Amino acid sequence: MSSFERSPLIFRLTHPSRARKITIESELSLEFRGLRRASRVVGRWHRRVARTVDHGMRLGYAIERQCRRAVEAESRPRKVGSQMLTAAQARRQLDRSPSVGTAALGRVVLAADAERRRLLRSVDHKIADLGRLTARLERDSERLQHLIERCYLGPQRDILLARSLAGDEQADRMPVMRALPDLTFLVLAIGRLEAVTHEVSACREEAHGTRALFPFVPEQRLDPSVAVRN
Fold it and tell me: Does residue 6 lie in a domain region?
């Protein structure tokens, strides 16, 4: 191996006899190296984004089930003495004869309302988790874009330095960033989670708007001013 072949890359780029040929080959190799590094970075993020979307979809299905259970809590039969009554039937019976079986009927109504409150509280927590997943994907998109640009910045810096040392007339011309990795999968993932969030928010509004919740103070039950939506 000659002393020229053992010399570092920058010296070979500035060598007058082979500067033009070596500069072209070095630019291509540096660009390929940056592209390969960026492709590896994107490949590692595919599975992570897929797991995040899968988690969001499972949250959406769980929210839909809980909203349906919250809507059905009013019509689910519960045992009152020797008979099975729904909360709606118990409420009508209380309105007709408030002095007969008030304690047992009130327990049925309060149990239905407590179940709805618990389910709707869980729905709100899951919707907040879904929003955090979407925000995480948006941050991941920005971070991945930054990582891809950083994969190209080093090779581009080396190319510009080699050109200036080789006395290239167009040393300030920026190198071409070839075949950037496609980040459409991140845009589709964010759009999918936003669609799920919109759908479950509609389910939540439907579950919240089924009726005014029964107040927890039995003496104020017939007062319309204390009927609240939770």
Answer: no
